[in-house]
Structure formats: C-alpha cells, structure tokens
Amino acid sequence: MRVIAIDGPAGSGKSTVARAVAQRLGLDYLDTGAMYRSVAFACLRRGIDPLDAEKVAALAPSLDIEVAGRVTVDGDDATEAIRSPEVTKAVTAVAANPEVRAEMVRRQRAWAESRGGGVVEGRDIGSVVFPQAAVKVYLTASDEERARRRSHEVRADDVTAVAADIARRDHADSTREASPLHVAEGATVIDTTGHTVDEIVDQVIGMLP
Ligand code: CDP
Q1: To test the ligand 1 pocket, which listed residue (91, 149, 168) has its Cβ within 8 A of the most ligand atoms?
Q2: Under a CB-based contact definition with an 8 Å cutoff, are residues 41 and 157 in contact?
C-alpha cells in the first residue's frame, strides 16, 4: 500500500497540493477534514450538541459519508454546507471526540486498503492513521498567508476575523488530547509561503522512494 500523507493547519495549502499530487500520480485523494466536517454537519442538522460526547459518538458510526467529489451525508448533498461558519465552529469539538476519531480512522484505513493507497490529507495522517506512509509531509505557511488564502476561499472580506478563527482552530487542534496536530515522526516540513503549487507538488513527488 502506497500512501502519501499530507498534514498541516488550515490554509497551509494541504487540499490544493494533495489534489494536485493525486492527479499527477493518477492516485485517489481523500480529504479527511471533510469527513469530520460531515459528522459536525449531521450533529447540527439533528440538533445534537457537538459537545455532547456520548451522543456524537453514537451518531458517527451510523452515518453514510461520501467525500469523493461532492460530499454527501446520508445521501444529501452537503458539499457547501460543510464549509459554513457554523460547521467550522462545531467541527472542533467533534474532531476532539476519541470515539468519532476511531470511527473515522477505521474508514480512512479501509479507503486506502481497498485501492492500494492514495493521497490522504488531514491533521493526524502521518502520525496516527498511516504512520508507515511512503511520504509524509507537514505543510505550513505564515499566519498572514494562511488567513489571506482562507478568506479568498470562503469569500470573506474580514481577513482579521478569518485569522482569529484559524488561530482558534490551530490552538484547539494542537492542544486536544486525542491525536493532536503535530509534525509526525519522519515528516518533512514544507513552508508553502511564497511558493507556487507546482513547486510544492514537485517537491512532494520528488520524495517518493
Ligand atoms: O480545510 P481546513 O484546514 O479549514 O480544515 P479541514 O481540513 O476541513 O478540517 C476541519 C477540522 O477537522 C480541523 O480543524 C480539525 O479539527 C479536524 N480534523 C482532524 O481533527 N483530523 C483530520 N485528520 C482532519 C481534520
């Protein structure tokens, strides 16, 4: 199984780079953040408090989540809805829930096993999900650059508010007990600030054994 693990915080360029690497190599691509966002979306839709660990843990295994191309949750298209500010807020508690993580990790491993690997993007891919990945990278970028990129993606004019939300998630993701965001053992840190997507993609592909 050949997995390329791409981790990093919001706005570091993970999705863009992971998608481009997958396309160049003819591999499938998995956005694991979309999976956690889908669980958060389902909580909000059912009126479940994201902080109610027991209810959220019971909900996660029952959900049918598809994140290939369009995102669907129990058959309903949630592609745009999972990027809403409400879901972005709720996902933090959902992703800190160890039982939710165990369920998502099981699905992520099954996804890779069924296709002999792929490019997988997230926060804990090189550290927890695929510690034996063929390539492990941890993307970063300056705080300003990350806020600028994310504001552009979500079409938000208020870059300061976006920066504050990124800082909130960075802190929560890095300090939580369950699989905190950190540079995995053996991962190469790449600062994407001021670099083109192609430059980063070349660097990642050049690391393949
Ligand atoms: O795209 P962005 O970086 O804003 O976030 P995302 O990749 O869609 O992930 C949303 C949230 O899910 C993150 O802030 C983490 O709390 C969580 N997440 C995680 O805990 N583990 C992963 N492997 C992927 C995402």
Answers
A1: 91
A2: no
